[in-house]
Write the structure tokens for this entry.
Amino acid sequence: MITNSAGASSDLGPDDLVPAHEPRMLLGKAAPDFFKAMFALDAAASAGLEPVIRELVKARASQLNGCAYCVDQHLADARAIGLTEQKLNGLTVWWETPFYTVRERAALALAEAVTRLGERGVPDEVYDEAARVFDADELARLVAMCVTINAWNRIGVTTRMSPAVRADGV
């Protein structure tokens, strides 16, 4: 029996779930020095960023990039630091909801612009709004976090990293 975060349960067991693709490679084993450097990059980018901003940015970029492993990980991390289900459920349409602060909205807009880089890059109005609500160090860390999570997402998607099924379904 599987129970979700709302307490609902089903008679489905782990054996009834469709298995994920097999990973193409375990990059941490194939290139441990690179993997270690990625963790160091992530830690450096995270330093000084509010945990809520950090997890919202990581989760949203991961959604946009289709990285199942990272979406699962960062939504779980967001729940662990107290983000509400309403806020997490609204993440895919954050601009349409009243659930986010001005700083969270600016961070999400910047994360989306960095993730979806087009021909003209990050629009001035998106960058300028982030610069208005974050100090220089926070903005630098926010840009670094956007770059870092996009790198992690590309690793996850390319190597077919898949989240494990949690016993509690959360």
Strands lie at 2-3, 9-10. Confidence is low (pLDDT under 50) at residues 1-5. The two ends are 13 Å apart (CA to CA). The longest strand covers residues 2-3.
